[in-house]
Amino acid sequence: MVKFSRSLMKELSRCIGCGACNISCPMFHVSDFKETEGARARIKLISMLGNNKIDLTEEFLGYIFTCINCGLCMDLCPVGIDVFDIIVKSRSSLVDIGYVPLVTVDMRDARRRTGSPIGEGLTKGVWLPPDFQPEKNADILFFAGCWVHTAPDVAINMSKILQKIAPNVAPAGPNEPCCGGLLYVIGERDSAEESKENLLKFIKELSPKVVVSGCSLCASLFPDLEMKYFSSFVDEALESNKIKTKSMKRKKNKIFLIRSCHSNGAARRILERIKNAVVIDTPNWICCDCGATLIYQSEPEKFDEWFKKISEIASDSDADYFMIEEPACYSMISKVLEGKNKYKGMKIISFPSFLVNHIS
Ligand code: SF4
Ligand code: SF4
């Protein structure tokens, strides 16, 4: 029998079943409003399991462990339940008593073998030019984040943009530790804490003035790391006139932006400063970042479905650019598209690779 903590059960009991959390749930929209794919069903099922009304089955684990971990479900709850926190805490309780789906076992093992939950094929820092190496006391320490190392063009363009903001930028480099964010959302609390502590130690040894993260999940989940997410940092630099935007040559370039789920809208604000860039309004539930790794790895067909649905909306809105803010998401989509940079007549581009040509 599964026993959740008293505080978790108390929080679950406050749910009035209204379904407002479904309104911002990407998986609910992508499944054409299938109740079991939405946030409300996840809360209901966790509550039923905790009250011993259903058995713990593979199917149950599937519902609880597969979503894109966007955290948007807490935005609209009328009674103020932090739905995502409940999902993560219930995952942790299940992991603690040994119930875990295969994908999280894989991520845990991958982290032990390679230092990162995203696993094989990841060699950190291969993109680093010889004259751009880790050093102490930099103005900016660029913490790329695991996925960014799989997209060298994005990593290099992020670095170039940071170098326009401060003279002395240093990367965390090939020994960059994983922040533990992905492990945290899948309920691997102890591994996540250990990863975060390693990273804190690593940052302390390099003693930079500021740490900028290429991954929004790390920056938002762990405030004690005191990282600034790349887009927010660039937004602040524009606001304080450290850098300026350059206009686009062609008039009216329509951009469909897939924002990062854990950022604060900075990418959109930046794009809106670029003359001739027209940012299309997108539904609130459209976002993607490192948290999507779980579904990308465990149910690739669902990730494909999600991408297909979003790209259809983008194409119907007549977009010229299909732009992805978060490097993790850009990498996953690039793999789905097998490296093609055009799709349904739209140019597929990462936000940093676009921005590098429109900033001075
Ligand atoms: S985290 Fe995102 S995908 Fe998961 S249940 Fe909440 S809104 Fe839906
Ligand atoms: S929005 Fe809040 S109260 Fe309504 S179903 Fe979701 S968790 Fe329950």
Structure description:
With 360 residues, the protein is of the alpha/beta class. It has helices at 6-13, 20-23, 26-30, 39-50, 58-65, 83-96, 102-114, 152-165, 181-185, 189-206, 216-221, 230-239, 266-272, 293-298, 300-316, 327-336, 351-355, and strands at residues 140-143, 169-171, 210-213, 227-229, 253-258, 277-279, 321-324, 342-343, 346-350. The chain has 17 helices and 9 strands. The chain is globular, with a radius of gyration of 20 Å. The site of one iron/sulfur cluster has 14 residues, from α2 and α4.
For the biggest sheet, the summary is: 5 strands, mixed
Distance between the termini: 60 Å
Neighbour order of strands in the largest sheet: 6-5-7-9-8
Query: Rounded to an integer, what's the Rg over CA atoms?
Result: 20 Å
Total beta strands: 9
Quickly give the CATH architecture of the largest domain.
3-Layer(aba) Sandwich
Number of domains: 3
Assign an overall shape: globular
Topology of helices and strands:
Blueprint: H1 6-13, H2 20-23, H3 26-30, H4 39-50, H5 58-65, H6 83-96, H7 102-114, E1 140-143, H8 152-165, E2 169-171, H9 181-185, H10 189-206, E3 210-213, H11 216-221, E4 227-229, H12 230-239, E5 253-258, H13 266-272, E6 277-279, H14 293-298, H15 300-316, E7 321-324, H16 327-336, E8 342-343, E9 346-350, H17 351-355
Parallel strand pairs: 1-2, 1-3, 3-4, 5-6, 5-7, 7-9
Antiparallel strand pairs: 8-9
Helix pairs in contact: 4-6, 12-13
This protein binds iron/sulfur cluster (SF4) (2 copies).
Residues 15-21, 39-40, 43, 77, 79, 81, 83 line the site of one iron/sulfur cluster.
